Fold these 2 entries.
Entry 1:
Amino acid sequence: APASSAAAGPVDKILFDFPFTSLPIYAALTPQIQAEAKERGITVELTNDNSDLSTQVSNLTAKVASDVDAVISFPMDPASLENVASQYTAAGKLWITYAGDLEAQTTSLKFSFEKSGRMLGEAAGEWATQTTGGAGKVLVIEDQLTQIGRERTEGILAGLKESAPGLEVVSQQQGVTPEEGLTVTSAVLSSHPDLTMVLAATGDAAQGAYQAFLSSGRSETDAKTYVGGLDGNLPLMQAMTKSPDSIARALVTVKPEEIAPAVVDIAVQAGEGNTAPIDLPVYMLTPGTPELQSFITSFGG
Amino acid sequence: MGFGIRNLSKRYGATLALDDVTLDFKPGQVHALLGHNGAGKSTVIRCLGGGASPTAGTIEVNGEQKQRLTPRESREAGIAIIYQHLSLVDTLSVSDNLFLGDEHTSRGLVDQQRQRREAQEVLDRVGADFAPTARVSQLSMGARQLVEIAKALRRSARLLVLDEPTAALSPVESARLAALVDKLRTEGIAIVYVTHLLEEVVRLADHATVLQNGRVVWSAQMQGVSKADLVRAVGGSSHARQKNAPPAGATVLQLEGVVCGSAPPVDLSARAGEIVGLYGLVGSGRTRLLETVFGVRNRRGGRIVVDGVPAGTASPSEALRAGIALIPGDRLKQGLFSTLPASDNVVMPAIARLAAPFRKRREERGLFSQAARDLRLHPADPRLPAASFSGGNQQKLLIGRWLTAHDRVRVLLVDDPTQGVDVGARAEIYRVIRDAAVQRGIAVLVASNDPEEIVALADRCVIFQDGAAVADLDMESVDEASLLAAIHTSPTS
Amino acid sequence: MHSIADSPLRTFLLKNPLIVLLILLVVGVQLSTGSLLTWQNMRGVLLDASVIAIAAVPCALLIIAGYIDLSVGASLALGGVVAGHVMHGSLASAPLAVVLAMAAGALVGLVNAVLSTVLGLSPFITTLGMLTAVRGADQLLSPLPLSGFDASFQFLGIGSVAGIPVPVIIATLVMVLATLFLAATPAGRHVYAIGVSREAAFLSGIAIRRIPFFLYVASGAMAALAGAVTAARLNSAPAGQLGLGFELTVLTAILLGGIALTGGEGSMLGVLVGVLFLGLLGNSLTLLGVTSFWQNVASGLALVAAIGITAATHEVRKRVAARRAQLSAPATGPAAPAASRPESAEIGS
Amino acid sequence: MHSIADSPLRTFLLKNPLIVLLILLVVGVQLSTGSLLTWQNMRGVLLDASVIAIAAVPCALLIIAGYIDLSVGASLALGGVVAGHVMHGSLASAPLAVVLAMAAGALVGLVNAVLSTVLGLSPFITTLGMLTAVRGADQLLSPLPLSGFDASFQFLGIGSVAGIPVPVIIATLVMVLATLFLAATPAGRHVYAIGVSREAAFLSGIAIRRIPFFLYVASGAMAALAGAVTAARLNSAPAGQLGLGFELTVLTAILLGGIALTGGEGSMLGVLVGVLFLGLLGNSLTLLGVTSFWQNVASGLALVAAIGITAATHEVRKRVAARRAQLSAPATGPAAPAASRPESAEIGS
Ligand SMILES: Nc1ncnc2c1ncn2[C@@H]1O[C@H](COP(=O)(O)OP(=O)(O)OP(=O)(O)O)[C@@H](O)[C@H]1O
Ligand SMILES: Nc1ncnc2c1ncn2[C@@H]1O[C@H](COP(=O)(O)OP(=O)(O)OP(=O)(O)O)[C@@H](O)[C@H]1O
Ligand SMILES: [Mg+2]
Ligand SMILES: [Mg+2]
């Protein structure tokens, strides 16, 4: 529900607030947004939230009185940002929620996390049905600390269950970084040497899992092994290009080069009074995906 | 009604620091506790003050027998203690320290005004010339001692315990303290007085007890007891001056117009084998001079020449390279590695010299046992942490560090060498210093507050006043009285 | 005792150089952005600073007493979660929520106190262990974020009394009480004594365990209060995200305020300056539009610079005092005030 | 000196109680999961532990000397990023990558060294500032992750020599060298002396700045080496994610190993035990299938328990030594070796 469609007016300056500054996607995305905006004569400011909720709130609060016309913010905890969002809209600015919906928002840029998780789960389940008759042991590397992580994890589990009920989820472990993925997978591999699938709520953790398989002696192209994750991850995409049989079998991701125009577009459109939300597509990347190379490029590879 | 201890024992690990000791402390009497370093004197005091709990026996307070005391109980029973190692809080003011743990309050808040007023009164009583608002960290050792005494007096104690109170005091301050003790005695306070200075015992004590290895070996009223009797009872040898042949070596150390801080330039020289005493009042600048020569403090001017070569002394390690070593005065703070084993404390500066390039453990052990023997270290256990040695034995560890370690030392600077050291070891330390000077042909500067020590040790004595070297006395013609006279005459007269 | 008249302001500033830096920062950023000193912006800065200050004050007292509490981040989250649960429960009442949150924090503090003061375990590692354990507990208590509270509860975070935001009032109160405690009560003096030397304090008959025990409990309770305030501000209490890394923020503010980890020194004014400095630094970098990775570089270097300037001024102050003492005091008088051990400078402590 | 025969093993275990806990942990988890002691699993644990150990060793030396380095997490990432850049550059060569990574880390160490030892600023806050600043620099150097390295470089992380993984070899080497350094060189002894009392060390002519200076440089270089190893293991070097929170892991391992933050005590064996304990604890919880929130609770409590048991054994050891000495020694004999400072126990330190 657009709280303030009255705040129409040309958008000259936008604030892009993406809190997870340590993620590679942050570094991939921001220059593209800046380039896109520049082409249209719009300036972009960035925040530095260091993946910390209270820093995000402080930084956004500090900018309420500034001359930005629109903010595109990825809320670390949606409820916590309602207040800030209403301050922005009250100040006559546009609030665009990135990956979520707030009551006080002008509009939103949607990514369905549950859906992308489900896509991965279903793809993995189908693969298992085809190659192993739907049997096998699965490790799910989850992220219970953030809202999006929880949604993704739910999607993965639901997708798996629907498409291959015979799969056994032997362990669910917290992990978001490559190091965490590596450590956790190594440990689970030792209690379940016959582990065949790892699905991770982040591509980075999936990459750690991939390395764990390799260093446990699993072949890069082992026919019965499946590693999949959410979000682009360069090393995994590169592994996919190396061989069609790579155990890096699936990544569900958005396309940075679609996000950048969308971010600028939605702000401009909202400024013009059009507050329809934009739904960004997600893509399933597999070793056979033809545009793999273009994804690699847009992720900075 | 009185105070005392009955069959008191205290064990530290394997050390029986007190072994069935019974003592009475009577009102209006000064009871002196004597004995070698590590005999158990401070342990008696720690038991009285609640700093240690006895293993067996009882403590009598006001006619009541107690198994142990907490510090608070001890204080409430009227016991006031001045510990051997001062227990003041550096970051607080004098008056805060005086009332620590016993503050005057009004409506729950500290009554600063009243505290300052009372602090001023008690500071006046001990003759202190600093304000109650001064921070303790800004006071000299002597002044801190006065704070401790004032702290004890303030509580109108009925048993006052002083553990080597004069070890860091000048003769003037000691005399002032003696007068205070006399006055308190007439007020009916029982006093326990620990010291290694037998003069003080003769002058002050009504009763004396000698401890040895935690046991009472001698105890008597002081009427008719002479200093010689005490020396015999303590088991030390009196350290009469053994005259060496006057040193005829070449000049080893020359200070040419050395300026430290705001003091006037100092010229001074010492020859091989010569021991030069530095004598003066508290704050007369001896420590500062020694620290400047050793590179601890910035030298503002002048030259330091060792064996004819100008020595750079920008830091202690440079000074050491130039052949200058210092045994610092505030040894516990400036010297002791309290948690490291005794052997490390002794051999630390020697480790690097012995190593080639790896450490030579056997030689290190040899050095330690040599020092332990020379200085009668007790216990002579290299593995015991330095903190668990008695005060005097900690001093010995540090003296041992410098008297054994450095072959290359040409100049030895010694600040207050026998502070807190017992009579027997005192003689040993003098012998070790003298031997080092004569046999190794090094020049020694000894700063001391004890005229007796200067007489016993020095070949020559330089008198300090207000940071300046005002007189140079040949010790052949000097005794303690003339030394005392020298520091109290003004340099202009 | 000073024979040369010195302006009290100058002495004060020499003693608290960070204040000068703070003023320079404020003036500089205000001139270049024009928006630092707006009421709106300062309100945000003060609100952030208040939350830090509420938890930092008892923590600073612990450090002065020679202890440390690294578990405040988890206690903060605990406070938020407990308050959130109460507000979503059947007895929803803002005062009850605050009281129970503080009680839960106090419980964590109690465990810290028993471990560190009664059992004498290393405060650093026990409170670090508690940080991890309590953080786990927070998430178990509230795996999903609680949000959407009564206005009565939100008042704690976004309300104002006489135009002053409630968290600022609380922080001011805490700070004033702590200042009074330190300066004017016996226990306050004892905090310093314990920090300098537990042994000396013990021998003076001071309750060397009871005071830090109480401070640990206070630290837990205050961190939880800060958590309740944060939850009220956010109108949400996400267990996994509240107070992440908060312990380091608090510690940094305290250290910036000139309170040494070795204990025995420091003042509440220092804490205030440290907290404000941290808050204004982050805010200024954001207002200046410094890009994100450069912000990290800049704020890290600013920390180093701040501590460097404090140390340098300290040095200057000592020199000045020493020179002045030389001029005024007789050479044989008692050691001059403030002229402390020249050696230590050379050792570079 | 011991009149009652005691088994050296028993003495050893009483001195290093964490080893007992470690063994109990291993046996318990092995019995209930059957997979802890598989080669596959131990290999994983050892690899993780090696990375921690490489950085923890010089860090522990710094702590023994009374300093601290909190910037190791950022130096680790820096090492990974620099090595990654070299491997993607025109001169791609694994040895060069390692050397340049270590040089970059050493540079960070150098800055820390100048700030903390030469200028004498608070090591805690300066290295904390450097942590933030260097982390920012890491991300500026490599905003996008570098990945896909030569096999020659990956060998550093996943290769083996004679069946032993390369990181384990490196860690062992570092540990052995440090043990030798501490025990057999004068500088090693000086580290303890400086840690106990800088002033006393200074007056003993010890290079009180040079030694910690060198240790800071070593700490930076070794953390960067650990970073290169990690990058090789992961086959990628994501600047923002490498070594997040690593400084706390390292510090925890060191403290668990019985090295006190006050300086002056500790051994490399302690670091080894601490590192292994941390690694095995996390691994065991994963093997046992404990869910993530409970893992936090359990590992926090395990830390507290570990430090508690160490302290309790210490106490027992003192008592035993005292009793034994009473039985065997004559009343006035020298003190037993292990009986240190009973008062301090009475003060409850
Ligand atoms: N904390 C301790 N731990 C172990 N042993 C101790 C401890 N304190 C004292 N001792 C031992 O107890 C014995 C008695 O020490 P005490 O301090 O009472 O001696 P003292 O007579 O005061 O000696 P000094 O004249 O040197 O001060 C010594 O052998 C000493 O090593
Ligand atoms: N820690 C200090 N800080 C500042 N000034 C000091 C300090 N210690 C001594 N002084 C000053 O330096 C001057 C010389 O003192 P020094 O300690 O060298 O005298 P001393 O002859 O060794 O006396 P003492 O008997 O106290 O050892 C005195 O004016 C004293 O006030
Ligand atoms: Mg004694
Ligand atoms: Mg002196």
Entry 2:
Amino acid sequence: MLLSNLPALQVVIPLVSAPVCLLLRNPRHAWACALIISWLVLAMALLLLQQVYTLGTISYAIGAWATPWGIEYRIDMAGALMILIIATVGAVTMPYAWRNIQHELHRKHTGVYYTCYLLCLTGLLGIVVTGDAFNLFVFLEISSLSSYVLISLGPSRRALTAAYQYLVMGTIGATFILIGIGLLYMMTGTLNMQDISQRLPEVADTRTIRVAFAFVTVGVSIKLALFPLHIWLPNAYTYAPSVVSAFMAATATKVGVYVLLRFFFTLFGLQFSFNAMHVGEILMLLAVAAILIASLVAIFQDNVKRMLAYSSVAQIGYIILGISLATTAGVSAGMLHLFNHAMIKGALFMAMGCIFLRLGSVEIHNMHGLARQMPWTMAAFVAGGLSLIGVPLTAGFISKWYLVNAALTDGYWPLAVLILVSSLLALIYIWRVVEAAYFHLPGADMHKVREAPASMLIPTWLLIGVNLYVGLDAGLITNIAQQGAASLLGQALQ
Amino acid sequence: MFIAVSAVLLVAIALGLVRAFRGPTLYDRVMAANMIGTLTVLMVAVLGFMAERPEFLDIALVYVLISFVSTIAVLRVYASRVSMQGSDRK
Amino acid sequence: MTELLGHYNYWIVIILMMTGFYIVIARPNLVKKVIGLFIFQTSVFILFISMAKIEGGTAPIIEEGLSVYSNPLPHVLILTAIVVSLATTALGLALVVRIQEAYGTSNEDDIHVQDEED
Amino acid sequence: MMQPLLDVLSWICLLGGAIFLLIGAIGVLRFPDFYTRLHAVSVCDTLGAGLVLVGLIFQGGLSLVTVKLLLIFYFMIFTGPTAVHALAQAALQSKLKPLVDDHEPR
Amino acid sequence: MEHLIDIVLLGLLMITGFAIVRMKSLLAVAMLTSIYSLLSASLFVVLDAVDVALTEAAIGAGISTILMLATVALTRDEEKAPRHTPLLPLAVVTVTGAALIYGTLDMPHYGDPAAPVHQHAASAYLHDTPGEIGVPNVVTSVLASYRGYDTLGEVTVIFTAGAGVLALLGYRTRRRNIQGPGIRKLVVLRVIAKLFFPLILLFALYVLFHGDYGPGGGFQAGVIFATGFILYALAFGLGNAQRVIHHPLLRIMAAVGVLIYAAVGIEGILLGGKFLEYGVLADDPVTGQHLGIMLIELGVGITVAAVMLIIYYGFVSRQD
Amino acid sequence: MSRLKHAINLGLFLFAIWVLLSGHYTPLLLVLGVLSTLLVVFLAARADLIDREIYPILLKASVLFYWFWLGREIIKSNINVARLILDPAMPISPNVFTVRAFQKTELGRVTYANSITLVPGTVAMDVEEDVITVHALTMAAAKDLKRGDMNRRVCHVEGVFPCS
């Protein structure tokens, strides 16, 4: 009975636990509650993935109302993969959060932090599983509002301005999406994504639908920080508490990408999005710009969190590049990179959190000789960095390999060169940190710095472990990504 | 007939808007907002009769209450600020 | 002429939306930006409600003797959206209050200057 | 029999109310300072609103509608002057000087 | 004839919008925003959206305006001129607006009964509601039952806002019961508040329980309920209001409302149905629907009232 | 003890309002009405608002008579003010003065102040103890108020005799 209601419970359980967390006055209890729920969510995500793997796409009618009237939950392979990413990152960051939050947040905020974290988790999961366009907007707002709060809790006052900037841009993005959904509804008379996609061909050739497409695309692009609309991201990730940076970098923008995929392939359809609207060319151009410019900017950052944030913008470029090819190979490479990048960035930001805990700073010029004091943390950073660069035997290599292959199949050989060049850029910015930590003489106060606590190191290494595992044996995850891509594109081709 | 009344109400609202734009003091604007609130209440009531749906009166009732409370709130919030400044000066 | 009347609502609503949007992106004052967002969102609500209207229809509360009702679904969506807009406004303003306390100003340009000094 | 009479009565009230509302709004525009404008608001709040509501009551007949209209009327009679008073008081507290006619002694 | 009112109201809205752009005094802008809300609420009435009108008035003209003014009171009133030329924003706005107007060209005409919006799901809601839900107000039936899950999301959004304001502004309990030097002079307000406080609360509960029959429901009721307390706080001081409803109680209420809603949904699962399936709550599906709608509206009302007060207390307690 | 009586009175009054508003007389809604009334009375008691009877006073015969008188005054002065507004010369002579309220209770004073405001032409600007500051639009309106007719009538309603 509970198993058949898994899609709803997947979202509802974190939702219910959020108010419970607010009621628990003792921060330790709130943390314990959030921890249990996070791991429960991960367990459910695995069960759900297994169900989708065996049974195919799951549809769940909330309130037992038939589809165009009620709200439908619809989970295919791509969705299940997304849920797995969110749940994994959520479950891994939670044990890590305790020390980090104790350190970086004002004491009176620690209780609220867990509430907002659970709400954010709810929102992200809700976006992924829903099959209803407006419901997507609602859960998008839940995740956005809670992430504004989470970011604003950061230790410096600039966290406030970063959160404000994100709030303004995020709300513009959400309102654009709302306008787009409104126009779609106006022309089709329905909000269910499947239903819209079936009714769309009749009216696809109208100016209204084209505008709806444009607004949804721009709105989602703000949320996923596509290149010229990324300006909220560096500040938000730099000034948020480290665990929030790790969680958001690994999930929020990824969910944005997933929403874009849903709209392009499931809702509007491949034909309309790529052949009629030529979104592929535009996306490819923006992706190339993102990869090059953001990587270049990342090189010149002294604050490593900011550097990683710019690197995120570049990595989103890779994912979008894969999608812009609009082939099964391209999309599956994009999704694979989506998974890998979530693991890499999560781990890297968590390593930064460890460093911030002990060093009180994440600036390169303060890290001289750090490797001797915090060998495990720096080793994690190096491992993650190698994966980010795309060195063989790491996860980053796998996804870049598939990406290059997909590009070459379509005859876009300059893209392959581009990926190589940008990997070099990544090498440079990672190297700057490595150089400072391993090859510079330690500063005067460096001997006081100790290794990070196990409660933070182990989660970091867990994600690094996933990275290395995928690098060695990518079969399972590649298979899931390919199935996800096929289900996205296959629906479109029907 | 209802049309005539609602037309007059609209004109009155427009005149109130002019006062809200011209100010010159905050109080003039609050006063204009309060008056527009009253006019809106009447407008909703008249519209309800025009559409032959007198259920609309619930909305009118809410408007009366809300516009009253928000007028008072504006004045109180602003007054506390003025008295604050006053104490600063001393 | 019918074209004009048929789309009048939508066009004005678009002008309203753009007014709000302009305030958000052009004005440096943080409070005014939030107000701009509020106007932007409220105007989108009018767009939705306009599309729900049926000529000669009445409010979707079923009653004997009435047959034409306006579309209830956009109303429901907008009820939700109004709540979202309130939540955004409240959070945005709370952030402005905190920024004011931390920086002593609520002007974006001044905040940039202070941030660069850091 | 009664209906036409009631209709006429209600039209008279509605029209009268509308006229007073309009006059009040003109007053809000024309009067020279804040405190004098308050009197024009009073015109809207009392006779303008009152007559319109009474006109509607005649339309509604004896029903729940009338009760609600009376309730609105009741609310308005209490909130209107309170709001005006609060406005005047707040303005006075913030040292907004009323325009006083100095031709005649106080 | 409704067209005429519609056109004029839209024109007034447009003028107000432009005035808001031009006006430099933020207090004036906040007041104009309140007027903007009132006007759009009247427009919603003209466009038959009575529930929306009720909400917009309570939110836009009420609580939002109060929050904006409270914020302006804490920041500087005058807006500085922007340092950059507004050319780029102007270009962005023009392009966006032009795109939207381009999009309107193929839209169904305003009020066209043959538009696709009115055909598919909407007509089914209007047709099926009396039989399946047994509630005259179709907005309520769609809101609470057909799309009840959206409403759960909505409550969660408002809960998030409450938690966020709690995190950002916190709360301070007032020891002093009476604020400002002028409280002694507020005798008129105090007496009227005394008169109106019970009435507003009663009216809020009326709106809560009559959402099935007319405009209203949990959300609007919650806002009106909070408004009653705001009036009380204005007349008798924040300290007294916090004494009537303690801050910890508000926290509990905010959480409990969401939990009630979710519990109704989960009860549906436990009784062998789907999440948020009200039909299984009672022997007769229509009764079950009634029960479910009533309970979730109650949950919505509790959370909304509590969160509104948390937000209001948060902003006002910063005024020191 | 009398607090309880006041509370019961308030409850009855509120329930009457509920019944008048509702229009749906199913058992469920009536029960909800009772519950709502109880909740509101409880909150009002918690808020310390049940210290005297407010609502029943409003229905006394003398009060109704006062309303009637006030209505006539309002209409008269409305016409006066309307004339002033429409007069191109606008012959107004705004002035500020104070009057002493004879009433003993807060409620009485507030009734008086609000009556002053309700009548267009005079606005109560400030109430401090028993001194009411009034803004009048014309000298005539001021003179009218200073005659003290309304003051005495409010006293009547309040039932406080004799007025000093």
